[in-house]
Design a protein that fits this description.
By secondary structure, the chain is an alpha+beta fold. The protein has twelve helices and 19 strands. Strand 12 and strand 13 form a beta hairpin. Helix 2 crosses helix 3 and helix 4 crosses helix 5. The mean pLDDT is 96.
Length: 404
């Protein structure tokens, strides 16, 4: 029996942990939270911060030496590709190069690399002082984006338009950067997509294209909060081919021949442009639930096989069907939750493919400022995109929150 290490024991990693066990693997989960929900589904656990690559490796090496050899390492719904790459390199396991992982977690290095390779990206610039920030604001046209170079989950990401307090925006973005570095880039009008691709021997297979929904851009401004997405994409095979070609160029730029590429793509001025690429599986149940529901592709299984160095079959990366799947998030009001109503209705809703309510009774809900602020989500299937969206809306309306 092979042993797979999953570096992330959060709630969104659970479908991946279950999948690994279904594949007949012994599953070891590593997480810094002793009460990580993923531990309830794993065979073994290692307590180590997912963001601390040295601590994780030290404890994994001890497990690897004294208990069972680790045959592969992966993260699921957790933005820790550097930790994964570090452990893989040290244990001589399949994985992306450390240099590639480092490029992917630093948005300036990433965009520098992509630009040099001819991949289209928004105009961007690292800003090192408030004076420089002010100068760019006076030079570039609104709208603009300010964001940390190295943060996650939309933390510290702001859309700048006339009227936004620039002093506040600068300090807010800066405090959300672990390294104290921020950048500015042009906001591109157009449809944004989430993509999930598998790179096999330098060939790109994009298994999922999902049109992202930003209907609440004004409601939560200047914070940029996505409210789910829809599959299949509205774009043609021709555009999807261009997206594939762009992601392949991006993978080559980052030095990745085998692995996962998560893409944040925008179709702007009829051109495919890359906002960001990540060398990991996406969160938000896109990779674990939406893609298999819409396409029939078992993406998590194939990603696990790559991490184990196993052969990937071309036919397993091709869609089996093309169903209408939509996802929407739940945004409660601010306050302390006293009661959550409607869970039974969700359980009895046959249109729902999956739902999760991670807000708890007694939890204080604050202002919505980043993706972790969301209280849960629903994924629904419909006979059309409109129907799938309506099913999501109906399900969310069935959920109610009472506050203290």
């Amino acid at each position: 029996m092979k042993n797979i290490l999953i570096i992330s024991g959060g709630i969104e990693a659970i479908p991946g942990i279950i999948k690994a066990k279904e594949m007949g693997l012994n599953v070891v989960v590593s997480d810094g939270n002793p009460n990580a929900p993923g531990f309830n589904y794993s065979d073994d656990k290692i307590i180590a911060s997912t963001y601390d690559h040295k601590e994780t490796y030290r404890k994994v090496k001890n497990y690897h030496t004294l208990k069972k050899n680790i045959d592969g390492v992966i993260c699921i719904a957790s933005d820790v590709p550097y930790t994964v790459a570090y452990v893989a390199e040290k244990l001589q396991l399949p994985g992306i190069p450390l240099k590639s992982a480092n490029l992917a977690i630093d948005k300036i290095l990433m965009k520098d690399s992509l630009s040099r390779s001819g991949v289209l990206v928004p105009d961007y610039h690292e800003i090192k002082s408030f004076a420089e920030f002010n100068n760019i604001i006076n030079t570039w046209d609104y709208p603009l984006i300010i964001k940390p170079v190295d943060s996650r989950g939309a933390r510290g990401v702001l859309r700048l338009v006339p009227g936004v307090d620039l002093d506040w925006a600068w300090n807010y973005s800066l405090k959300n950067s672990p390294s104290g570095r921020v950048m500015i880039e042009r906001y591109l009008d157009g449809v944004q997509l989430s993509t999930e691709s598998i790179i096999v021997k330098s060939k790109c297979y994009t298994c999922g294209y999902s049109d992202r929904n930003y209907e609440y851009l004004d409601r939560y401004a200047p914070h940029i909060i996505e409210n789910g997405s829809d599959m299949p994409t509205i774009f043609s095979k021709h555009v999807k081919k261009r997206i594939d070609e762009t992601i392949k160029m991006g993978a080559e730029s980052l030095g990745i021949k085998n692995g996962i590429i998560k893409g944040d793509i925008v179709i702007s001025d009829n051109e495919v442009k890359v906002i960001e690429l990540a060398t990991r599986l996406s969160g938000g149940y896109f990779s674990t639930n939406m893609i298999p529901s819409s396409t029939g592709i078992d993406l998590i299984k194939e990603a696990i096989k790559i991490s184990l160095g196993e052969k990937i079959r071309h036919k397993d990366l091709l869609p089996k069907h093309n169903k209408y799947i939509s996802q929407r998030y739940i945004f409660p009001n601010a306050g302390v939750i006293k009661k959550i109503k409607g869970i039974k209705k969700l359980k009895n809703n046959s249109s729902l493919k999956f739902f999760n309510i991670h807000a708890k009774v007694g939890q204080e809900i604050g202002k919505i400022t980043s993706h972790p602020s969301r209280a849960g989500m629903v994924i629904a299937e419909g006979i059309s995109r409109k129907d799938a969206v309506n099913q999501c809306t109906k399900a969310i309306n069935d959920i109610g929150f009472d506050y203290q």
